[in-house]
Automatic annotation (TrEMBL), chain A:
Organism per entry: Drosophila gunungcola (fruit fly)
Annotated segments matching region Disordered: 31-66
UniProt KW Ribosomal protein keyword: yes
Name by which UniProt lists this protein: Small ribosomal subunit protein mS40
SUPFAM superfamilies the UniProt entry points to: Ribosomal protein S18
Localization annotation: Mitochondrion
UniProt-listed Pfam families: Ribosomal_S18
Gene3D superfamilies: Ribosomal protein S18
Coiled coil stretches, renumbered: none
Any Gene Ontology biological process: mitochondrial translation
TrEMBL record, chain B:
Record InterPro entries: Ribosomal_mS22
Pfam family, one: MRP-S22
GO molecular function: structural constituent of ribosome
GO cellular component terms, semicolon-separated: mitochondrial small ribosomal subunit
Bilayer-spanning residue ranges: none
Entry protein name: 28S ribosomal protein S22, mitochondrial
Recorded superkingdom: Eukaryota
Annotated coiled-coil segments of the chain: none
Length: 206, 393
Protein backbone atom coordinates (compact mmCIF):
# COMPACT_ATOMS: atom_id res chain seq x y z
CA UNK A 1 0.00 0.00 0.00
CA UNK A 2 2.68 2.41 1.02
CA UNK A 3 4.87 2.14 -2.11
CA UNK A 4 1.87 2.67 -4.37
CA UNK A 5 0.88 5.78 -2.49
CA UNK A 6 4.38 7.01 -2.67
CA UNK A 7 4.42 6.27 -6.38
CA UNK A 8 1.31 8.32 -6.97
CA UNK A 9 2.81 11.12 -4.93
CA UNK A 10 5.94 10.93 -7.05
CA UNK A 11 3.83 11.14 -10.19
CA UNK A 12 2.03 14.19 -8.90
CA UNK A 13 5.28 15.89 -8.07
CA UNK A 14 6.39 15.12 -11.58
CA UNK A 15 3.32 16.63 -13.13
CA UNK A 16 3.67 19.86 -11.24
CA UNK A 17 7.34 20.01 -12.01
CA UNK A 18 6.91 19.33 -15.69
CA UNK A 19 3.93 21.52 -16.34
CA UNK A 20 6.22 24.43 -15.84
CA UNK A 21 8.86 22.97 -18.13
CA UNK A 22 9.32 23.26 -21.84
CA UNK A 23 6.88 21.43 -24.07
CA UNK A 24 9.35 20.39 -26.70
CA UNK A 25 10.73 17.50 -24.71
CA UNK A 26 7.26 15.93 -24.75
CA UNK A 27 8.24 13.25 -22.30
CA UNK A 28 6.97 15.39 -19.47
CA UNK A 29 3.45 14.59 -20.43
CA UNK A 30 3.86 10.89 -20.35
CA UNK A 31 3.07 10.81 -16.68
CA UNK A 32 -0.24 12.47 -17.33
CA UNK A 33 -0.91 10.02 -20.10
CA UNK A 34 -0.33 7.20 -17.71
CA UNK A 35 -2.54 8.45 -14.95
CA UNK A 36 -5.37 8.96 -17.41
CA UNK A 37 -5.01 5.94 -19.65
CA UNK A 38 -3.26 2.92 -18.26
CA UNK A 39 -3.04 1.52 -14.81
CA UNK A 40 -0.46 -1.18 -15.38
CA UNK A 41 2.03 1.43 -16.53
CA UNK A 42 1.43 3.38 -13.39
CA UNK A 43 2.31 0.38 -11.31
CA UNK A 44 5.50 -0.14 -13.23
CA UNK A 45 6.29 3.52 -12.88
CA UNK A 46 5.62 3.43 -9.18
CA UNK A 47 8.10 0.63 -8.63
CA UNK A 48 10.62 2.54 -10.69
CA UNK A 49 10.04 5.61 -8.61
CA UNK A 50 10.44 3.40 -5.58
CA UNK A 51 13.84 2.26 -6.68
CA UNK A 52 14.91 5.81 -7.29
CA UNK A 53 13.57 6.92 -3.97
CA UNK A 54 15.74 4.50 -2.07
CA UNK A 55 18.91 5.81 -3.68
CA UNK A 56 18.12 9.46 -4.18
CA UNK A 57 14.82 11.32 -3.83
CA UNK A 58 14.74 12.47 -7.48
CA UNK A 59 12.26 11.90 -10.31
CA UNK A 60 12.73 8.90 -12.64
CA UNK A 61 15.46 9.37 -15.16
CA UNK A 62 13.85 11.09 -18.15
CA UNK A 63 16.60 9.89 -20.46
CA UNK A 64 16.22 6.26 -19.61
CA UNK A 65 14.83 4.15 -22.46
CA UNK A 66 15.39 0.68 -21.07
CA UNK A 67 11.70 -0.06 -20.64
CA UNK A 68 10.03 -1.55 -23.68
CA UNK A 69 6.67 0.04 -24.36
CA UNK A 70 4.19 -2.32 -26.03
CA UNK A 71 2.58 -1.16 -29.30
CA UNK A 72 -0.91 -1.34 -27.83
CA UNK A 73 0.04 1.29 -25.27
CA UNK A 74 1.47 3.46 -28.00
CA UNK A 75 -1.71 3.13 -30.04
CA UNK A 76 -3.78 4.13 -27.04
CA UNK A 77 -1.43 7.02 -26.35
CA UNK A 78 -1.93 8.40 -29.83
CA UNK A 79 -5.65 8.60 -29.17
CA UNK A 80 -5.30 10.04 -25.66
CA UNK A 81 -5.80 13.56 -24.37
CA UNK A 82 -2.16 13.73 -23.30
CA UNK A 83 -1.04 13.23 -26.86
CA UNK A 84 -3.44 15.88 -28.03
CA UNK A 85 -2.14 18.32 -25.48
CA UNK A 86 1.46 17.69 -26.44
CA UNK A 87 1.20 17.81 -30.20
CA UNK A 88 -2.20 19.31 -30.91
CA UNK A 89 -3.29 18.78 -34.48
CA UNK A 90 0.27 18.73 -35.78
CA UNK A 91 2.28 15.74 -36.80
CA UNK A 92 4.80 14.56 -34.26
CA UNK A 93 7.65 15.95 -36.34
CA UNK A 94 6.24 19.34 -37.31
CA UNK A 95 7.47 21.28 -34.31
CA UNK A 96 10.86 19.59 -34.19
CA UNK A 97 13.95 21.63 -35.10
CA UNK A 98 17.41 20.24 -35.58
CA UNK A 99 20.35 21.68 -33.70
CA UNK A 100 23.38 22.42 -35.80
CA UNK A 101 26.15 24.95 -36.02
CA UNK A 102 26.29 27.29 -38.94
CA UNK A 103 23.63 28.10 -41.47
CA UNK A 104 23.15 24.75 -43.09
CA UNK A 105 22.20 21.52 -41.39
CA UNK A 106 24.40 18.51 -42.09
CA UNK A 107 22.95 16.45 -44.95
CA UNK A 108 22.27 13.44 -42.79
CA UNK A 109 20.74 13.40 -39.35
CA UNK A 110 22.55 11.77 -36.47
CA UNK A 111 23.06 8.04 -36.46
CA UNK A 112 21.05 7.35 -33.35
CA UNK A 113 19.65 9.18 -30.35
CA UNK A 114 19.69 6.23 -27.99
CA UNK A 115 22.87 4.45 -26.96
CA UNK A 116 22.90 1.77 -24.31
CA UNK A 117 19.26 2.41 -23.45
CA UNK A 118 19.84 6.05 -22.69
CA UNK A 119 19.25 9.20 -24.66
CA UNK A 120 22.72 10.49 -25.40
CA UNK A 121 21.81 13.76 -26.97
CA UNK A 122 20.25 17.01 -25.91
CA UNK A 123 17.88 17.18 -28.85
CA UNK A 124 16.60 13.67 -29.57
CA UNK A 125 14.63 13.08 -32.78
CA UNK A 126 10.79 13.24 -32.76
CA UNK A 127 10.46 9.48 -32.30
CA UNK A 128 13.19 9.04 -29.71
CA UNK A 129 12.20 11.99 -27.55
CA UNK A 130 8.78 10.55 -26.80
CA UNK A 131 9.15 6.98 -25.64
CA UNK A 132 5.46 6.29 -26.18
CA UNK A 133 5.80 6.63 -29.94
CA UNK A 134 6.55 3.08 -31.00
CA UNK A 135 7.29 2.35 -34.62
CA UNK A 136 5.42 -0.81 -35.50
CA UNK A 137 3.44 -1.98 -38.50
CA UNK A 138 0.25 -2.06 -36.44
CA UNK A 139 0.64 1.52 -35.31
CA UNK A 140 -0.91 2.97 -38.46
CA UNK A 141 -1.89 6.28 -36.94
CA UNK A 142 1.76 7.07 -36.30
CA UNK A 143 3.02 5.73 -39.61
CA UNK A 144 0.53 7.78 -41.59
CA UNK A 145 2.12 10.94 -40.24
CA UNK A 146 5.32 10.09 -42.06
CA UNK A 147 3.82 9.34 -45.46
CA UNK A 148 3.65 11.98 -48.13
CA UNK A 149 0.08 12.66 -49.26
CA UNK A 150 1.35 13.54 -52.75
CA UNK A 151 3.34 10.54 -53.84
CA UNK A 152 2.86 8.02 -51.06
CA UNK A 153 6.53 7.80 -50.15
CA UNK A 154 8.00 7.83 -46.68
CA UNK A 155 9.04 11.41 -45.95
CA UNK A 156 12.74 12.08 -45.93
CA UNK A 157 14.68 12.49 -42.70
CA UNK A 158 15.72 15.92 -43.91
CA UNK A 159 12.08 16.92 -43.50
CA UNK A 160 11.12 14.95 -40.43
CA UNK A 161 14.46 15.09 -38.63
CA UNK A 162 14.38 11.43 -37.57
CA UNK A 163 17.69 9.91 -36.63
CA UNK A 164 19.01 7.34 -39.08
CA UNK A 165 18.10 4.41 -36.89
CA UNK A 166 14.51 5.53 -36.37
CA UNK A 167 14.19 6.29 -40.05
CA UNK A 168 15.24 2.80 -40.97
CA UNK A 169 12.79 1.34 -38.47
CA UNK A 170 10.09 3.59 -39.89
CA UNK A 171 10.70 2.39 -43.42
CA UNK A 172 10.62 -1.22 -42.34
CA UNK A 173 7.39 -0.67 -40.44
CA UNK A 174 5.73 1.05 -43.40
CA UNK A 175 6.75 -1.76 -45.72
CA UNK A 176 5.38 -4.35 -43.33
CA UNK A 177 2.16 -2.41 -42.82
CA UNK A 178 1.60 -2.20 -46.56
CA UNK A 179 2.32 -5.86 -47.02
CA UNK A 180 -0.16 -6.88 -44.35
CA UNK A 181 -2.85 -4.48 -45.45
CA UNK A 182 -2.72 -2.14 -42.48
CA UNK A 183 -1.86 0.74 -44.77
CA UNK A 184 -3.39 1.08 -48.18
CA UNK A 185 -1.56 2.44 -51.17
CA UNK A 186 -2.33 2.90 -54.82
CA UNK A 187 -1.62 -0.36 -56.55
CA UNK A 188 -0.17 0.04 -60.06
CA UNK A 189 -2.75 -0.31 -62.81
CA UNK A 190 -2.67 -3.63 -64.53
CA UNK A 191 -3.67 -3.70 -68.15
CA UNK A 192 -5.09 -6.93 -69.48
CA UNK A 193 -4.58 -8.23 -72.95
CA UNK A 194 -7.85 -10.14 -73.28
CA UNK A 195 -6.61 -12.33 -76.11
CA UNK A 196 -4.12 -13.83 -73.69
CA UNK A 197 -6.94 -15.20 -71.56
CA UNK A 198 -9.84 -15.75 -73.91
CA UNK A 199 -8.14 -17.73 -76.63
CA UNK A 200 -8.82 -17.88 -80.33
CA UNK A 201 -12.40 -16.74 -80.87
CA UNK A 202 -11.74 -13.42 -79.23
CA UNK A 203 -8.72 -12.88 -81.42
CA UNK A 204 -10.83 -13.25 -84.53
CA UNK A 205 -13.39 -10.81 -83.24
CA UNK A 206 -10.87 -8.14 -82.38
CA UNK B 1 15.10 -18.83 -79.95
CA UNK B 2 17.32 -17.88 -77.18
CA UNK B 3 17.36 -20.46 -74.47
CA UNK B 4 18.87 -19.65 -71.19
CA UNK B 5 20.07 -22.34 -68.95
CA UNK B 6 18.96 -21.63 -65.52
CA UNK B 7 19.81 -23.44 -62.38
CA UNK B 8 17.73 -23.11 -59.28
CA UNK B 9 18.61 -24.44 -55.92
CA UNK B 10 15.22 -26.08 -55.74
CA UNK B 11 16.05 -28.45 -52.96
CA UNK B 12 17.09 -25.63 -50.70
CA UNK B 13 13.93 -23.67 -51.38
CA UNK B 14 11.59 -26.61 -51.09
CA UNK B 15 11.25 -26.42 -47.32
CA UNK B 16 10.61 -22.70 -47.38
CA UNK B 17 8.01 -22.95 -50.08
CA UNK B 18 6.19 -25.68 -48.23
CA UNK B 19 6.09 -23.50 -45.15
CA UNK B 20 4.59 -20.68 -47.19
CA UNK B 21 2.03 -23.03 -48.67
CA UNK B 22 0.92 -24.12 -45.25
CA UNK B 23 0.45 -20.56 -44.13
CA UNK B 24 -1.28 -19.54 -47.33
CA UNK B 25 -3.72 -22.38 -47.23
CA UNK B 26 -5.90 -20.57 -44.71
CA UNK B 27 -7.67 -17.75 -46.58
CA UNK B 28 -7.46 -19.31 -50.00
CA UNK B 29 -9.58 -22.26 -49.03
CA UNK B 30 -12.29 -22.77 -51.63
CA UNK B 31 -15.19 -20.48 -50.89
CA UNK B 32 -18.77 -21.68 -50.89
CA UNK B 33 -19.54 -19.94 -54.15
CA UNK B 34 -17.54 -21.12 -57.11
CA UNK B 35 -18.11 -20.93 -60.83
CA UNK B 36 -19.16 -24.51 -61.41
CA UNK B 37 -18.77 -24.29 -65.17
CA UNK B 38 -16.74 -22.07 -67.43
CA UNK B 39 -18.11 -18.52 -67.04
CA UNK B 40 -15.99 -17.12 -69.83
CA UNK B 41 -18.38 -17.41 -72.84
CA UNK B 42 -21.18 -15.74 -70.91
CA UNK B 43 -18.94 -13.03 -69.54
CA UNK B 44 -17.34 -12.11 -72.84
CA UNK B 45 -20.67 -12.02 -74.60
CA UNK B 46 -21.14 -8.56 -76.16
CA UNK B 47 -24.51 -7.96 -74.53
CA UNK B 48 -23.28 -8.98 -71.08
CA UNK B 49 -20.32 -6.67 -71.44
CA UNK B 50 -22.58 -3.80 -72.44
CA UNK B 51 -24.85 -4.41 -69.45
CA UNK B 52 -21.94 -4.61 -67.05
CA UNK B 53 -20.33 -1.47 -68.39
CA UNK B 54 -23.58 0.41 -68.11
CA UNK B 55 -24.01 -0.79 -64.55
CA UNK B 56 -20.48 0.24 -63.63
CA UNK B 57 -21.25 3.84 -64.63
CA UNK B 58 -18.52 6.34 -65.31
CA UNK B 59 -17.78 8.88 -62.66
CA UNK B 60 -14.76 10.77 -63.92
CA UNK B 61 -13.97 12.18 -60.50
CA UNK B 62 -13.68 8.71 -59.13
CA UNK B 63 -11.75 7.25 -62.05
CA UNK B 64 -9.28 10.12 -62.09
CA UNK B 65 -9.05 10.49 -58.35
CA UNK B 66 -5.72 11.76 -57.11
CA UNK B 67 -3.41 8.84 -56.81
CA UNK B 68 -0.38 8.77 -54.58
CA UNK B 69 2.00 7.51 -57.22
CA UNK B 70 5.57 8.72 -57.77
CA UNK B 71 4.65 10.69 -60.87
CA UNK B 72 1.40 12.54 -60.57
CA UNK B 73 2.48 15.81 -62.02
CA UNK B 74 -0.05 17.94 -63.83
CA UNK B 75 0.39 20.13 -66.84
CA UNK B 76 -1.24 23.45 -67.53
CA UNK B 77 -1.93 24.42 -71.12
CA UNK B 78 -3.74 27.07 -73.09
CA UNK B 79 -6.22 25.55 -75.52
CA UNK B 80 -8.86 26.60 -77.94
CA UNK B 81 -12.36 25.27 -77.46
CA UNK B 82 -11.86 22.69 -80.21
CA UNK B 83 -8.66 21.41 -78.67
CA UNK B 84 -10.34 21.24 -75.30
CA UNK B 85 -13.21 19.30 -76.73
CA UNK B 86 -10.94 16.73 -78.32
CA UNK B 87 -9.05 16.51 -75.04
CA UNK B 88 -12.35 15.79 -73.27
CA UNK B 89 -13.12 13.01 -75.70
CA UNK B 90 -9.67 11.51 -75.12
CA UNK B 91 -10.24 11.75 -71.41
CA UNK B 92 -13.45 9.72 -71.59
CA UNK B 93 -11.77 7.10 -73.75
CA UNK B 94 -8.91 6.86 -71.29
CA UNK B 95 -11.36 6.58 -68.42
CA UNK B 96 -13.12 3.71 -70.15
CA UNK B 97 -9.76 2.06 -70.55
CA UNK B 98 -9.09 2.44 -66.83
CA UNK B 99 -12.38 0.65 -66.18
CA UNK B 100 -11.26 -2.38 -68.16
CA UNK B 101 -12.75 -5.36 -66.37
CA UNK B 102 -10.42 -8.16 -65.34
CA UNK B 103 -11.15 -11.32 -67.28
CA UNK B 104 -13.25 -14.02 -65.65
CA UNK B 105 -12.05 -17.44 -66.68
CA UNK B 106 -12.10 -20.94 -65.33
CA UNK B 107 -9.50 -22.15 -62.87
CA UNK B 108 -6.72 -23.71 -64.87
CA UNK B 109 -5.64 -27.16 -63.79
CA UNK B 110 -2.06 -28.24 -63.95
CA UNK B 111 -1.52 -30.92 -66.52
CA UNK B 112 1.64 -32.92 -66.59
CA UNK B 113 3.11 -32.81 -70.06
CA UNK B 114 6.16 -34.98 -70.33
CA UNK B 115 8.26 -34.40 -73.42
CA UNK B 116 10.91 -37.00 -72.96
CA UNK B 117 12.15 -39.48 -70.43
CA UNK B 118 15.85 -40.00 -70.53
CA UNK B 119 16.96 -42.52 -67.93
CA UNK B 120 20.55 -42.04 -69.00
CA UNK B 121 20.49 -38.59 -67.44
CA UNK B 122 19.36 -39.88 -64.08
CA UNK B 123 21.28 -38.30 -61.22
CA UNK B 124 23.20 -36.00 -63.54
CA UNK B 125 22.81 -33.37 -60.87
CA UNK B 126 21.06 -33.15 -57.57
CA UNK B 127 18.93 -30.18 -58.60
CA UNK B 128 16.35 -29.59 -61.27
CA UNK B 129 17.15 -27.45 -64.30
CA UNK B 130 14.63 -24.88 -65.46
CA UNK B 131 14.89 -23.64 -69.05
CA UNK B 132 13.13 -20.41 -69.85
CA UNK B 133 12.64 -18.79 -73.22
CA UNK B 134 13.42 -15.14 -72.65
CA UNK B 135 12.90 -13.89 -76.19
CA UNK B 136 12.01 -10.22 -76.12
CA UNK B 137 8.43 -9.23 -76.80
CA UNK B 138 6.78 -12.60 -76.32
CA UNK B 139 3.56 -12.74 -74.35
CA UNK B 140 3.55 -14.24 -70.91
CA UNK B 141 1.16 -16.99 -71.89
CA UNK B 142 3.27 -17.97 -74.88
CA UNK B 143 6.54 -18.15 -73.05
CA UNK B 144 7.89 -21.68 -72.90
CA UNK B 145 9.35 -23.00 -69.68
CA UNK B 146 10.69 -26.52 -69.31
CA UNK B 147 12.04 -28.48 -66.41
CA UNK B 148 14.59 -31.26 -66.47
CA UNK B 149 13.97 -33.35 -63.40
CA UNK B 150 16.76 -35.12 -61.61
CA UNK B 151 15.48 -38.47 -62.84
CA UNK B 152 16.03 -37.35 -66.45
CA UNK B 153 12.44 -36.44 -67.32
CA UNK B 154 12.01 -33.35 -69.49
CA UNK B 155 8.60 -31.76 -69.11
CA UNK B 156 6.66 -28.54 -69.37
CA UNK B 157 6.87 -26.58 -66.15
CA UNK B 158 3.88 -26.26 -63.86
CA UNK B 159 1.83 -23.07 -63.92
CA UNK B 160 3.38 -22.03 -60.66
CA UNK B 161 6.92 -22.36 -61.96
CA UNK B 162 6.01 -20.61 -65.19
CA UNK B 163 4.58 -17.68 -63.34
CA UNK B 164 7.61 -17.45 -61.11
CA UNK B 165 9.99 -17.53 -64.06
CA UNK B 166 7.98 -14.88 -65.88
CA UNK B 167 8.10 -12.70 -62.81
CA UNK B 168 11.83 -13.29 -62.50
CA UNK B 169 12.74 -12.21 -66.02
CA UNK B 170 9.87 -9.85 -66.84
CA UNK B 171 8.67 -8.49 -63.53
CA UNK B 172 5.15 -7.14 -63.34
CA UNK B 173 5.09 -3.92 -61.38
CA UNK B 174 3.58 -4.41 -57.94
CA UNK B 175 3.69 -8.20 -57.93
CA UNK B 176 5.61 -9.82 -55.10
CA UNK B 177 7.62 -12.97 -55.49
CA UNK B 178 6.16 -14.16 -52.20
CA UNK B 179 2.54 -14.32 -51.08
CA UNK B 180 1.73 -10.98 -49.47
CA UNK B 181 0.91 -11.40 -45.80
CA UNK B 182 -2.46 -9.82 -46.43
CA UNK B 183 -3.43 -12.79 -48.58
CA UNK B 184 -1.47 -15.34 -46.60
CA UNK B 185 -2.97 -14.78 -43.17
CA UNK B 186 -6.65 -15.19 -42.57
CA UNK B 187 -6.94 -12.60 -39.80
CA UNK B 188 -5.26 -9.88 -41.85
CA UNK B 189 -7.59 -10.44 -44.78
CA UNK B 190 -10.67 -10.39 -42.60
CA UNK B 191 -9.39 -7.24 -40.92
CA UNK B 192 -9.08 -5.56 -44.31
CA UNK B 193 -12.59 -6.72 -45.16
CA UNK B 194 -14.12 -5.37 -41.97
CA UNK B 195 -12.44 -2.03 -42.70
CA UNK B 196 -14.09 -2.05 -46.15
CA UNK B 197 -10.82 -1.83 -48.07
CA UNK B 198 -12.47 -3.71 -50.91
CA UNK B 199 -10.98 -1.78 -53.77
CA UNK B 200 -7.49 -2.06 -52.36
CA UNK B 201 -7.79 -5.81 -51.87
CA UNK B 202 -9.15 -6.35 -55.35
CA UNK B 203 -6.57 -4.07 -56.98
CA UNK B 204 -3.84 -5.93 -55.24
CA UNK B 205 -5.37 -9.27 -56.13
CA UNK B 206 -5.31 -8.39 -59.83
CA UNK B 207 -1.64 -7.56 -59.68
CA UNK B 208 -0.62 -10.49 -57.53
CA UNK B 209 -2.54 -13.32 -59.16
CA UNK B 210 -3.52 -14.36 -62.65
CA UNK B 211 -7.27 -14.63 -63.35
CA UNK B 212 -7.06 -18.39 -63.86
CA UNK B 213 -5.52 -19.11 -60.48
CA UNK B 214 -7.53 -20.69 -57.69
CA UNK B 215 -6.44 -18.01 -55.21
CA UNK B 216 -7.81 -15.32 -57.48
CA UNK B 217 -11.22 -16.97 -57.52
CA UNK B 218 -11.28 -17.72 -53.81
CA UNK B 219 -10.25 -14.31 -52.60
CA UNK B 220 -12.44 -12.38 -55.02
CA UNK B 221 -15.39 -14.60 -54.06
CA UNK B 222 -14.72 -13.85 -50.40
CA UNK B 223 -14.61 -10.13 -51.05
CA UNK B 224 -17.85 -10.20 -53.01
CA UNK B 225 -19.58 -12.27 -50.36
CA UNK B 226 -18.46 -9.91 -47.65
CA UNK B 227 -19.60 -6.98 -49.76
CA UNK B 228 -22.99 -8.58 -50.16
CA UNK B 229 -23.32 -8.67 -46.40
CA UNK B 230 -21.97 -5.21 -45.65
CA UNK B 231 -23.88 -3.72 -48.62
CA UNK B 232 -21.28 -1.08 -49.39
CA UNK B 233 -21.68 -1.49 -53.12
CA UNK B 234 -21.07 2.17 -53.76
CA UNK B 235 -17.40 1.71 -52.88
CA UNK B 236 -16.88 -0.27 -56.06
CA UNK B 237 -19.13 1.76 -58.35
CA UNK B 238 -17.21 3.15 -61.30
CA UNK B 239 -14.19 1.00 -60.63
CA UNK B 240 -13.13 -1.92 -62.76
CA UNK B 241 -14.39 -4.40 -60.16
CA UNK B 242 -18.07 -3.52 -60.32
CA UNK B 243 -18.74 -5.56 -63.45
CA UNK B 244 -17.22 -8.79 -62.15
CA UNK B 245 -19.05 -8.26 -58.89
CA UNK B 246 -22.44 -7.87 -60.56
CA UNK B 247 -21.69 -10.87 -62.73
CA UNK B 248 -20.76 -12.89 -59.66
CA UNK B 249 -24.05 -12.06 -57.94
CA UNK B 250 -26.07 -12.75 -61.06
CA UNK B 251 -24.37 -16.09 -61.47
CA UNK B 252 -24.96 -17.14 -57.86
CA UNK B 253 -28.53 -15.86 -57.69
CA UNK B 254 -27.97 -13.27 -54.98
CA UNK B 255 -28.65 -10.04 -56.80
CA UNK B 256 -31.34 -8.84 -54.39
CA UNK B 257 -29.14 -6.78 -52.10
CA UNK B 258 -27.44 -5.08 -54.99
CA UNK B 259 -30.82 -4.50 -56.58
CA UNK B 260 -32.12 -2.94 -53.40
CA UNK B 261 -29.11 -0.64 -53.29
CA UNK B 262 -29.66 0.40 -56.90
CA UNK B 263 -33.35 1.15 -56.33
CA UNK B 264 -32.57 3.12 -53.20
CA UNK B 265 -30.05 5.24 -55.04
CA UNK B 266 -32.48 5.74 -57.91
CA UNK B 267 -30.41 3.90 -60.52
CA UNK B 268 -33.46 2.21 -61.96
CA UNK B 269 -32.04 1.52 -65.40
CA UNK B 270 -29.11 -0.23 -63.71
CA UNK B 271 -31.55 -2.32 -61.72
CA UNK B 272 -33.29 -3.35 -64.93
CA UNK B 273 -29.96 -4.25 -66.46
CA UNK B 274 -29.05 -6.34 -63.44
CA UNK B 275 -32.30 -8.27 -63.62
CA UNK B 276 -31.84 -8.74 -67.35
CA UNK B 277 -28.35 -10.04 -66.72
CA UNK B 278 -29.56 -12.59 -64.21
CA UNK B 279 -32.27 -13.72 -66.64
CA UNK B 280 -29.63 -14.06 -69.29
CA UNK B 281 -27.22 -15.98 -67.11
CA UNK B 282 -29.83 -18.48 -65.99
CA UNK B 283 -31.70 -18.71 -69.30
CA UNK B 284 -34.99 -17.67 -67.72
CA UNK B 285 -37.58 -17.26 -70.43
CA UNK B 286 -38.57 -13.67 -69.74
CA UNK B 287 -38.61 -11.12 -72.52
CA UNK B 288 -36.21 -8.37 -71.46
CA UNK B 289 -34.68 -7.18 -74.73
CA UNK B 290 -37.64 -4.97 -75.59
CA UNK B 291 -37.44 -3.14 -72.26
CA UNK B 292 -33.71 -2.75 -72.61
CA UNK B 293 -33.87 -1.25 -76.09
CA UNK B 294 -36.60 1.13 -74.97
CA UNK B 295 -34.50 2.21 -72.01
CA UNK B 296 -31.40 2.56 -74.15
CA UNK B 297 -33.22 5.04 -76.35
CA UNK B 298 -34.12 7.13 -73.32
CA UNK B 299 -30.86 6.81 -71.44
CA UNK B 300 -27.48 7.96 -72.67
CA UNK B 301 -24.55 5.60 -72.12
CA UNK B 302 -22.21 6.36 -69.19
CA UNK B 303 -19.59 7.69 -71.59
CA UNK B 304 -22.07 10.12 -73.14
CA UNK B 305 -23.17 11.37 -69.73
CA UNK B 306 -19.58 11.92 -68.65
CA UNK B 307 -18.76 13.76 -71.87
CA UNK B 308 -21.84 15.95 -71.55
CA UNK B 309 -20.82 16.82 -68.03
CA UNK B 310 -17.36 17.82 -69.18
CA UNK B 311 -18.73 19.86 -72.04
CA UNK B 312 -20.87 21.89 -69.69
CA UNK B 313 -17.85 24.20 -69.27
CA UNK B 314 -18.48 25.50 -72.78
CA UNK B 315 -21.76 27.01 -71.66
CA UNK B 316 -21.09 30.60 -70.84
CA UNK B 317 -22.69 31.90 -67.67
CA UNK B 318 -24.23 34.88 -69.44
CA UNK B 319 -25.84 32.58 -71.96
CA UNK B 320 -29.50 32.33 -71.24
CA UNK B 321 -30.36 28.75 -70.50
CA UNK B 322 -33.73 27.72 -71.62
CA UNK B 323 -36.23 27.77 -68.79
CA UNK B 324 -36.88 24.13 -69.49
CA UNK B 325 -33.25 23.29 -68.88
CA UNK B 326 -33.35 25.21 -65.64
CA UNK B 327 -36.34 23.25 -64.43
CA UNK B 328 -34.62 20.03 -65.41
CA UNK B 329 -31.53 20.85 -63.39
CA UNK B 330 -33.63 21.95 -60.43
CA UNK B 331 -35.56 18.71 -60.33
CA UNK B 332 -32.65 16.57 -61.47
CA UNK B 333 -34.78 14.71 -63.96
CA UNK B 334 -36.12 15.28 -67.44
CA UNK B 335 -39.20 14.14 -69.30
CA UNK B 336 -37.23 11.23 -70.67
CA UNK B 337 -36.09 10.17 -67.25
CA UNK B 338 -39.65 10.05 -65.99
CA UNK B 339 -40.67 7.97 -68.96
CA UNK B 340 -37.71 5.64 -68.44
CA UNK B 341 -38.50 5.30 -64.76
CA UNK B 342 -42.01 4.19 -65.54
CA UNK B 343 -40.82 1.46 -67.89
CA UNK B 344 -38.14 0.27 -65.48
CA UNK B 345 -40.47 0.25 -62.50
CA UNK B 346 -42.88 -1.95 -64.41
CA UNK B 347 -40.09 -4.36 -65.23
CA UNK B 348 -38.73 -4.38 -61.68
CA UNK B 349 -42.14 -5.02 -60.17
CA UNK B 350 -42.58 -7.89 -62.54
CA UNK B 351 -39.33 -9.33 -61.26
CA UNK B 352 -40.28 -8.83 -57.61
CA UNK B 353 -43.58 -10.58 -58.17
CA UNK B 354 -41.86 -13.54 -59.82
CA UNK B 355 -40.38 -16.44 -57.89
CA UNK B 356 -36.79 -15.39 -58.68
CA UNK B 357 -36.57 -12.64 -56.10
CA UNK B 358 -35.75 -13.68 -52.56
CA UNK B 359 -36.18 -10.50 -50.54
CA UNK B 360 -39.59 -9.49 -51.76
CA UNK B 361 -40.77 -7.38 -48.83
CA UNK B 362 -37.65 -5.25 -48.70
CA UNK B 363 -37.63 -4.64 -52.43
CA UNK B 364 -41.33 -3.84 -52.53
CA UNK B 365 -40.90 -1.27 -49.80
CA UNK B 366 -37.98 0.34 -51.61
CA UNK B 367 -39.98 0.49 -54.81
CA UNK B 368 -42.93 2.02 -53.00
CA UNK B 369 -40.87 4.79 -51.39
CA UNK B 370 -39.17 5.52 -54.67
CA UNK B 371 -42.51 5.71 -56.41
CA UNK B 372 -43.79 8.23 -53.92
CA UNK B 373 -40.71 10.39 -54.23
CA UNK B 374 -40.96 10.20 -57.98
CA UNK B 375 -44.63 11.13 -57.93
CA UNK B 376 -43.87 14.21 -55.90
CA UNK B 377 -41.05 15.15 -58.20
CA UNK B 378 -43.26 14.68 -61.21
CA UNK B 379 -45.99 16.87 -59.71
CA UNK B 380 -43.45 19.56 -58.95
CA UNK B 381 -41.98 19.22 -62.40
CA UNK B 382 -45.32 19.61 -64.09
CA UNK B 383 -46.29 22.45 -61.80
CA UNK B 384 -43.10 24.35 -62.56
CA UNK B 385 -43.58 23.81 -66.25
CA UNK B 386 -47.10 25.08 -66.12
CA UNK B 387 -46.08 28.10 -64.08
CA UNK B 388 -43.41 29.01 -66.61
CA UNK B 389 -45.69 28.29 -69.51
CA UNK B 390 -43.51 25.63 -71.06
CA UNK B 391 -45.33 23.52 -73.60
CA UNK B 392 -45.46 19.88 -72.68
CA UNK B 393 -44.85 17.97 -75.83
Amino acid sequence: MLPIARGIYGGLVNITRNSRGAIHTASGFRCKAETSTSTDEKDAESTEVDGDDSSSSSAPDAKDRSKIIPVETSMRYLKSAAYKQTYGEDFVWTQYRRNHKGMYAPRKTRKTCIRQNRITTGNPCPICRDEYLVLDYRNTELLEQFISPHNGDVLSYSKTGLCQKSHLRLRVAVQQARDSGYLTYDVPFREYDYSEYYGQQQKQKA
Amino acid sequence: MHLLKHLRQLNGLQGLRQAIRQVSSAPTKPSALQYERDPQPLFTDAETQRLLQSMTQLNLDRVYRKRTVPDNSSEIKFMTNEQLDSEFQDMVVRAQHMLQMPPIVEIKKDVERVIDKDPALKDFANTKYVFTDITFGRRQSERKVFVRETDGTLEHATLDTTKRMNQLYFPLEGRQSYTPRMFALEELLSKCLTEHKYEFILDRLLVQYEPYEAEFHNISARVFEHLNESKQFDLLRSTRHFGPMAFFYAWHRCIDDLLYDMIRRDYLHNAVELIALSYKVHNIPVEYEATLTELDKLHPTPAQTALAELRSVFRRPEDKQGIEQEINTAIGKTDQDFAADEISLKFIEQYIASEHSLKKVQLELAVQTLKEVNREKLLLFQGLKKAHGVQTS
